[in-house]
Amino acid sequence: MTGAGRLRLGFIALNDAASLIVAQEKGFFAAQGLDVELRREVSWATIRDKVTVGTLDGAHMLAPLALAVSLGVADGEPTPLIAPLALNLNGPAVTLSSRLASAVGAAPDASGLARLVARRQAEGASPITLAVVFPYSVHNYLLRDWLARAGIDPDRDARLTVAPPARMTELLVDGVVEGFCVTEPWGAAAVAAGAGQLAVRASQLWPRTPDKVFALRETWAAEHPEAVQAMLRALLRAAAWADAPGNRAELVEILARPHYVGAAAPVIAGSLSDMVFYAGEANAPLPVHAGWLLSQMMRWGHIGQDVDIAALAGRVYRPDLYRVAAAAEGLSPAPTPDSLEGFGEAGVYRLADARAHAASAKLSRMPTD
Amino acid sequence: MRVLVIDPDPARAALVAEGLAGVEPLEVRHAAVFREAEAAAFGPDVIVVASDSPDRDTIESLREATAANPRPVVMFVDRSEPGLAEQAVLAGVSAYVVDGFSTARVRSVLEVAMSRFQLMNQLRQDLDKAKADLASRKTVERAKALLMKERGLEEDAAYRLLRKLSMDTGRPIGAVAADLLAYANVLKGNAT
User: Domains of chain B (ranges plus CATH)?
Assistant: First the structure.
């Protein structure tokens, strides 16, 4: 027993909530002496509010949202959060409407789209509208980076809007949006419905893409260290279970239940292939991942230029807590890296150069002086 | 008053309309899901959204993104979430979260939300203006320094020259100062 009482953990209906769902369904939380109530929420704003005010003890959260809440830029006062565990790598994908996809070709870069955008501008037609799931999301920054690499200014040459993941297919069919970036299974669902085509997967742009984290209030975590470790151990076991090929069929069946992800089982089954829940220490919360995302946020002017990226990344992302849990599970975590390879066009990204990277990135909103 | 109610359950729109009885003119429109084009065409004075609506993220992003046409948002939270509303308001988390729902309170809740929203909007505009004024003052200072150096003028003579240019062209002094600095850069070969 951890003395924390009944724990209330929130999640959104997405494949990457798998470890939380599995920990509950397969008894990994219970095995650690935890009494967990899993609550499905319908919007990231609600997850943010409930974690902030304490009606949820922890949640499945977009990594940039955890950083934005800690900084106080995502509406409301700053509330320091911690991310002691990453829930998944890969999973987001850019999907374009079938009509748009056939017009711009199948290349995974956005060069075809850039030509179309230029043609539409010349004709005075309305700009292309693309949707993401939340302003402070990996999806927003991934889509922006993809567009910017082809010379498309995401604010000037396109219109980015926010829509709930489960409604993306409908919006695509109705022509309200012409493409979107979401986490699976909702990209696969649009493809299965014949409404869209996959343009590029996150992993093709940012290898082993960071996406969702398990987020807790810093003060709550400090008061409940045993409960935190017990949850991390349970989530590590659940993640290993979710990644095991032999468990895939059962995982799909669990996720497809209406009160979890609630998408068709064949769609979920097809959309899990690229996602990593455990392999290669996927659960290590790497401050360099947080730094990369903060550099993107600074690049686009979403956070102030005076933010100390390395300090904030190190305060929110807590590999120290992860390592204690991993060691207790008999794992021997590799040293925590401070650089990333293959992210963006700069080659190697170093946490120490986070600000310079943001300033030199293509279309950066930071002054060049 | 134009009120847009986004709620999968039509009952809430009926309650809002009932609570606003007597307000003239009044138009309460209900939609199960939020559609941006419809909302823009309707032009609501206030949007009421159910806390369990998946469209909350969309509505919230509009509030941040479309500074040109923001709308106050009222969110009614169910009694099944004890404490959320009070704590959210205390923490300044969400724009307007109100616990419970009774027709007697609808009108006052919406009016408070709208006036608070206008106040916040005014504060934001004042802040933007203060920032712009400060930037303009800095530009004028730099243009003044340039005139003093290049033309050998005293400080107040340099300022009078800028003010005259501003009056002659009918443009704000900050704009004239900015032009002067830009032209000076061209003449010095600093700009391409």
Answer: 2-101 (3.40.50.2300), 130-188 (1.10.10.10)
